[in-house]
Amino acid sequence: MYKVRSIKVIAKKEFTETLRNSWTPVITCVFAAISVGISYFGLVTRGETGLQSFETTIASLMSMVIYIVPLIALLMGYSAVSGEREQGSLALLLTQPVSRGEVVLGKFLGLALALTCSTLVGFGITGVLILFRVGSQGWVNYVYFLLSSLCLGLVFLSMGLLISILARKKAEAAAGAIFLWFFFTFIFDMMLLGLLIFLAKQMKVAWLTMLLFFNPGDIFRLSNLIHLENLSSMMGLANLLPPSLMNGGLIILLFILWLTMLLTASVYAFNRQSA
Q1: pTM of the predicted model, to two decimals?
Q2: Distance CA 67, CA 79 (A)
Q3: For residue 173, which of 86, 260, 246 has the smallest C-alpha distance?
Q4: 14, 66, 225, 271: which has the fewest Cβ within 10 Å?
């Protein structure tokens, strides 16, 4: 059994280091600047400026969040273990009365807390401005958008942590993190589109598009599509999914499965290593 106290101590240490290194305030400012800027200038092509409604802001923010949140989460996680391994502090940490599983969970929770604060505060500032300047219509959808953005970030954070454990050097972890970002944000959907073109006659298109569930970014898109029907024109392949699969409960379960699998793999991989 893992000791909660040990996990809390490691998590506190990890969170404190993100504050000391200015990670948390910088990311918060980035999220706030992006969301406020997109909400204010989102309709500039129509000759309109000013804060938009919640739903219009979500529609404009989605395409940006799908790139920036995974990238930041991977950058936060890729050096969590590999960086300490190079510095020699990891070996010192493992001499303490803590298990390897506690180290992994503590590091994840500390970084997750930092990412949660940045996401909720950064995007929340825009939500508060819209609420007081534009109106409350659609605020529930914005809260769901904010929480789904956080879930997306946590999945990629756990992905970055796994890469950090598997890589022997920090540079290798950085390369792996960049590759994963490119794969899930660009390559995956291109490969799926290719499969649809070549295999559409042999397999049902609906079955092929279920492969979207193997990409956390596409799960994020689907989660917001369920709540905002006017976004369906932006969803491309997702429009081909069977309606029975467009279920909020299923989307939440998929995020939980991704997190569980990645953290389990991280603990397993770290336990298998000698140092």
Answers
A1: 0.91
A2: 20
A3: 86
A4: 271
pLDDT digits (tens, 9 = 90+) for 40-93: 876 665 666 678 888 888 888 888 899 999 999 999 999 999 988 888 888 888
pLDDT tens string 216-243: 998 898 888 776 655 544 555 555 555 5
| Cα 188 from Cα 16, distance rounded (Å) | 35
Neighbours of 44 (CB within 10 A): 10
| Residue 153 burial (CB count, 10 A) | 28
Read off the DSSP letter of residue 78: T
Nearest Cα residue to 265 out of 172, 161, 183: 161
> CA 257 → CA 60, 106, 253, 268, distances in Å?
28, 19, 6, 16
